[in-house]
Design brief:
By secondary structure, the protein is of the alpha+beta class. The radius of gyration is 29 Å and the shape is elongated. The protein has three helices and six strands, in the order ββαααββββ. A hairpin with a 6-residue loop joins strand 4 and strand 5. A four-stranded antiparallel β-sheet has the order 3-4-5-6. The chain has a two-stranded antiparallel ribbon with strand order 1-2. Helix 2 crosses helix 3. Keywords: Membrane, Transmembrane, Transmembrane helix.
Length: about 160
């Protein structure tokens, strides 16, 4: 069905006008009109754009071995440099996870930090989706006498705890 452009007369000599959106059967919603060049372009571009976004997010959401290693060692250095408030009763997994995720170049899906199950309860294993690599962070509480506050000493090593 063609309609005339709204500002022309029905019997005018202007070319037919197809709207970009047309009412769907039932009239409750509108759909792209494939007879309009813009509507056809939207029909083709919308799924291609969605596919591109999904592929981009999938690619940037996975860790590589190097990214995870750099983030873990960077987090250990950051935790040693600056004082942090921690509640040792809750463990340090959340603080360590936040420190790893704050490192530059990390994927938007964060790393997983879990307390080790062995005899060393100060060890935390760090893993990331997309890689089989695992790293170990050891956390020890100390005391800064000059500032009269507790501080953390964090060391990183390759391999799980």
């Amino acid at each position: 069905m063609t309609t005339t452009r709204p500002d022309t007369t029905p019997g005018g000599a202007d070319d037919p006008y197809e709207p970009v959106f047309t009412p769907a059967p039932g009239g409750a919603r509108y759909v792209y009109n494939h007879r309009n060049p813009v509507g056809l372009a939207l029909i083709l571009l919308a799924p291609l754009t969605a596919l591109g976004v999904i592929l981009y997010l999938h690619d940037t959401g996975s860790w590589s071995r190097g990214e995870l290693r750099d983030a873990v060692y960077g987090a250990a250095e950051e935790m040693n440099r600056a004082p942090h408030v921690h509640h040792s009763d809750l463990g340090y997994a959340w603080s360590l996870e936040d420190a790893v995720d704050r490192q530059p170049g990390t994927p938007f899906i964060g790393a997983s930090v879990h307390r080790g199950t062995g005899p060393d309860r100060t060890a935390y294993t760090v893993t990331g989706s997309g890689t089989s690599a695992a790293y170990c962070l050891h956390v020890y509480e100390g005391h800064d006498a000059a500032a009269d506050r507790s501080i953390l000493h964090v060391s990183a090593e390759d391999g799980p705890c």
